[in-house]
């Protein structure tokens, strides 16, 4: 070891291939921040927003349709005679069945919430997905009631033919009891499903702020 004129020891000069503990170590350089999208539960997508919103609107339309029958159509028909009842109900059913817009909305009202629930689950918004799934399940029950009770009665009414030539009006009693009751049930289920999707919309808005 050499001695500085002031008496302070100085390290040996660096020797090739020899570790010098006094040598200055290189300082680590700061790394630039990573760029790119960061996925998370608050990620917002226009497709997810539109999907959830349209799902809610369609369920609202279905609930409104069933409710209209509950409070106006069926009570009004109940005051008519049997022939008028059959003729009017046949015309109502023919108008609805022949409307492609209704048929599309009726089925898409189930498809869109199912797709929305899956999408929300994959995005990490589990609470939103649960409420959407609840709405989808309730509306699926509505479809099962429709296809197992209301549509068979509608078909039976259509098969009865011209009301002016009918002699057996027992189908009217089935409508006044079974059809009306199940339609009230469909209204209630659709309303609860609509409430579930409305709750999902609120949670979605909070999660994507």
From TrEMBL:
Residues 1-42 are annotated as: Disordered. InterPro entries: Anthrone_oxy. Keywords: Membrane, Transmembrane, Transmembrane helix. It comes from the Bacteria. Pfam families: Anthrone_oxy. This is DUF1772 domain-containing protein. Residues 17-26 have a biased composition (Low complexity). The chain crosses the membrane at residues 50-69, 101-121, 128-149, 184-204.
